[in-house]
Amino acid sequence: MIPDQAESLRRKLEINNVKQAKTISFVSGKGGVGKSNIAVNFSLELCNQGQKVLLVDLDIGMGNVDILLGLQAKKTIVDMLEDELPIYDIMELGPNNLHYIAGGSGLSTLFSINQQKMDYFLMQYNEVIKKYDYIIFDMGAGATHGSIDFVLASDECIVITTPEPTSITDAYSMIKFIIGFKKTMPIYVVLNRSDNVKKGLMTVNRFQKLIAQFLGVNIKFLGILPEDKAVTSAVIRQAPFAIQNNKSNIAKSIKQLTENYRDRQVAINVKESSTFVERLKGLLGNRGR
Q: I need a surface site. Which of 42, 233, 263, 271 has the fewest CB within 10 A?
């Protein structure tokens, strides 16, 4: 992003508001379950519903958020860290006024960077946390002791799975890993690629009972997304399905899922006592970074 565009974006985001963006991590136990695609279209739907959203691709080296949006980022989060660029310089504008940051390549992982780079990341993140309603992290598949800190510091996480037994098993392992560090972590589950709503509901119900019985926590069911050829078509065309075919079953379902999520937030209306940056600093400090 060229300097005058960055300055324009900065001015547009300047608001006199003390609120903090809600930080949501999208996670999955394994790759190939549609996590990034859901994160992108969920973000677009939030924007469509009048919310200010920043989508951050944290799957460094494997990220594809810009591709799914049908765009090409000029700068990435790797450029910000390596060249100490202002965060506004790497932010791009997508459809529905969605702002996003691409993952890029050149780092093996964001989560093993040195203290100086992590401090710079946190300083830049602090620049924008009051200027959005939601900041969404598209995390890499699986979990590591490095990436888990970003998930734990988030306000909530959304676990994406499919009805396949291996996917359910991996989602269980992911949730077990998360609550092993933070049992109070608010967790939602989304069942993707379900070819039957009734069977999908039965799968989710069994999964919730399994988690409650063996892990002792209650996870929240957010929604079911159908198997739909519109997704494949959208990926091939490099256009989000929520925009490319907004009359499709999957587009209608992601809209309903997003509305379900926002309705829950209005009902809960819980105010966090600490910010994402404060929580992440605490976690990193406890691990001796």
A: 271
Q: Is 0.85 surpassed by the pTM of this model?
A: yes
In what side-by-side order are the strands of the sheet with 99-101? 92-93, 99-101, 53-57, 134-138, 22-28, 156-161, 187-194, 220-226
- Alpha-carbon separation of residue 231 from 68, 133, 222, 276 (angstroms): 11, 27, 20, 32
SS3 208: helix
Cα 238 to Cα 249: distance, rounded to the nearest angstrom: 18
Rounded to the nearest 10 degrees, how much is the dihedral formed by the CA atoms of 189, 204, 38, 263?
-60
CA dist., res. 101 & res. 75, Å (int)? 8
pLDDT at position 268 is: 47
Q: Rounding to the nearest 10 degrees, give the CA dihedral for residues 269, 272, 273, 274.
A: -160
Q: Write the DSSP symbol of residue 149.
A: H
What pLDDT digit, counting tens, does each position of 135-177 carry?
999 999 988 777 899 999 999 999 999 999 999 999 999 999 9
Say how far apart CA 214 and CA 281 lie, in whole Å.
31
Half-sphere exposure of 45 (CA within 13 A, CB side): 22
What burial letters (b/e) apply to 6-32, b meaning 16+ CB within 10 Å? beebbeebeeeeeebbbbbbbbbbbee
**Residue count of the chain:** 289
Number of neighbouring beta carbons within 10 Å of residue 72:
10
Distance between CA 23 and CA 14 in Å, rounded? 19
Name the one residue in this structure whose structure tokens are 């976690």. Answer: 283
Strands (E) in 72-144, as ranges, are 92-93, 99-101, 134-138
Q: Read out DSSP for 215-234?
A: H---PEEEEEEE--HHHHHH
